[in-house]
Specification:
- This protein is α+β, with helices and mostly antiparallel strands and 67 residues long.
- It has a single domain (8-60), classed as Factor Xa Inhibitor (Irregular).
- The chain contains 3 helices and 3 strands; from the N terminus they run H-E-E-H-E-H.
- A 3-stranded antiparallel sheet has the order 1-2-3.
């Protein structure tokens, strides 16, 4: 019987904190930032807490305990 594997592309985009929260970066701030105002550039770096359904967590992060 094989164990379920963690989805590597999923875990690269998200971070699971010690308390079980899932944090992701805002989208749209990977490149072409030279024309943005500095305030908007820095606003894109602020992480946000996201909520995931239990099914998504079990499929993609089987070895993490997410609240």
């Amino acid at each position: 019987m094989s164990s379920q594997k963690t989805n590597k592309s999923f875990i690269k985009r998200l971070k699971v904190t010690k308390n079980g929260k899932v944090i992701a970066r805002k989208s749209g701030f990977n490149h072409l930032n030279a024309k943005m105002r500095r305030v908007k550039q820095l606003a894109g770096k602020v992480p946000r807490v996201i909520t995931l359904t239990k099914k998504v967590v079990q499929q993609n992060l089987p070895h993490h305990s997410v609240k």
